[in-house]
Amino acid sequence: MLTLNNITKKYGKITAVDNLSLKIQEGQIFGFVGPNGAGKTTTLKIIATLLKQTSGNIYINDIEVSTNVKEVRSIIGYMPDFFGVYDNLKVDEYLEFYSDLAGIQYREAKSVISDLLDLVELNSKKNEYVDSLSRGMKQRLCLARSLVHNPKLLILDEPASGMDPRARVQMKRILRELGKMGKTILISSHILPELSELCTNIGIIEKGRMVESGTVDEIMKKSISSNNVRIKVLDSTQNAVKLLQEDSTITYVYGEDNKIEFSYQGDDKDMVKIIKRLVNNDIPVVSFSPMENNLEEIFMKVTKGEE
Ligand SMILES: Nc1ncnc2c1ncn2[C@@H]1O[C@H](COP(=O)(O)OP(=O)(O)O)[C@@H](O)[C@H]1O
Ligand SMILES: [Mg+2]
After folding, report:
1. Predicted TM-score of the model (pTM)
2. Cβ(132) to ligand 1 under 6 A?
3. What domains sit in the chain, N to C, each tagged with a CATH number?
4. What is the DSSP track for 19-46?
5. For atom 8 of ligand 1, which residue has the closest CA?
6. Could you say which of 2, 76, 80, 116 would form a disulfide bridge with 144 (CB–CB 3.0 to 4.6 Å)?
7. Does 168 score more than 90 pLDDT?
């Protein structure tokens, strides 16, 4: 459905996207994950025809994107990471405005808008002013706006950012629904767990480069060989982190507040050695628990926790 071949984008001397390639098949929900500044927005804008790449090419099915802007725009729905303020427009008027821009006849638009408002759970708000909506509602409205012309491919730039947990759950439910409707979805986030249960495929981008990509299962398997442990200490993690970093069996350490997560290569006996060493060095360990491998840790490892 979507193919990126060696996309590079430079802003003057800054290389925002660096020789990035990716393929998304029809029906996939592809999570595009990476820390802030990694190049996600730039890549999505290029796909959405709002920005031109410095080199490389993009195909949607067999259509070359940069030379077929109009056709591409009719196939894709793009939801930007930031959207403006709209004084004196009500929710339904807002969608009418965008339907009109998309060239949809008034009568058809009415029924499309009603369906979309149901989908994004905003039907009860259709007569409210857009500016009076919560952030989560505005984001759902913006999603509805990107759907007015019934696009096949959705490009969503951090659609759940800045939302409270309830709003996130709601957004996920809607995206899952869109997946069931057969849409192909490319969705970005700087928070991996947000995407892990939603997506079929994941690509991890760092400094403009794709550092990992594959199905969610494939990416999970890659780091299954190491054991992950979470410990809690009584005070700051500084000394414990230092001690763990000196240990050659430990491949990864991350400390925050009074919690530390680390990975080690070895078996239970090695684990016992690590615990002994911590205790012998007067580290006040409160709790100790093995962890399942999850995508967040993989993400932290792959991007080396640089955020
Ligand atoms: N218009 C611009 N001019 C110059 N540099 C930019 C511009 N937009 C983005 N950048 C830079 O390109 C890099 C990638 O940014 P962006 O695509 O927004 O990343 P992300 O969406 O992953 O946070 C960053 O270093 C950012 O500062
Ligand atoms: Mg961005």
Report:
1. 0.77
2. no
3. 2-218 (3.40.50.300), 223-302 (3.30.70.100)
4. EEEEEE-TT-EEEEE--TTSSHHHHHHH
5. 42
6. 116
7. no
